[in-house]
Amino acid sequence: MMSDTNPMRARSAGGEGVPPVTVMLADFVAKHPSCGWDQLVEREAQRTFLNWVGCAIGASRHGAVAAALAALEDLESAPQVSVLGRHERVDMSGAALLNGISSHTFDFDDTHLKTIIHPGGPVASAALALAEHSGANGRQLIDAIVLGADVACRVGNAIYPDHYDRGWHITGSTGMLGAAAACARLLRLDPHQSAMALGIAASQPIGVREQFGSMTKAFHIGAAARAGLTSALLAKHGYTASLYALEARRGLLRTYSDKCDWKEIENALGERFEIAFNSYKPFACGVVIHPCIDGCVQLRNQHSLRSDDIDRVELKVHPLVLELTGKRSPTIGLEGKFSVYHACAAGIVFGAAGESEFSDAIVARPDLVALRERVHAVVDPSIGEDSADVSIRCQDGRSLHVFVEHAVGSLQRPMSDEDLCRKFHGLVDPILGAARAESIIEHCEALPGAADVHSLTAAARG
Amino acid sequence: MMSDTNPMRARSAGGEGVPPVTVMLADFVAKHPSCGWDQLVEREAQRTFLNWVGCAIGASRHGAVAAALAALEDLESAPQVSVLGRHERVDMSGAALLNGISSHTFDFDDTHLKTIIHPGGPVASAALALAEHSGANGRQLIDAIVLGADVACRVGNAIYPDHYDRGWHITGSTGMLGAAAACARLLRLDPHQSAMALGIAASQPIGVREQFGSMTKAFHIGAAARAGLTSALLAKHGYTASLYALEARRGLLRTYSDKCDWKEIENALGERFEIAFNSYKPFACGVVIHPCIDGCVQLRNQHSLRSDDIDRVELKVHPLVLELTGKRSPTIGLEGKFSVYHACAAGIVFGAAGESEFSDAIVARPDLVALRERVHAVVDPSIGEDSADVSIRCQDGRSLHVFVEHAVGSLQRPMSDEDLCRKFHGLVDPILGAARAESIIEHCEALPGAADVHSLTAAARG
Question: Are A242 and A355 contained in the same domain?
Answer without folding.
Answer: no
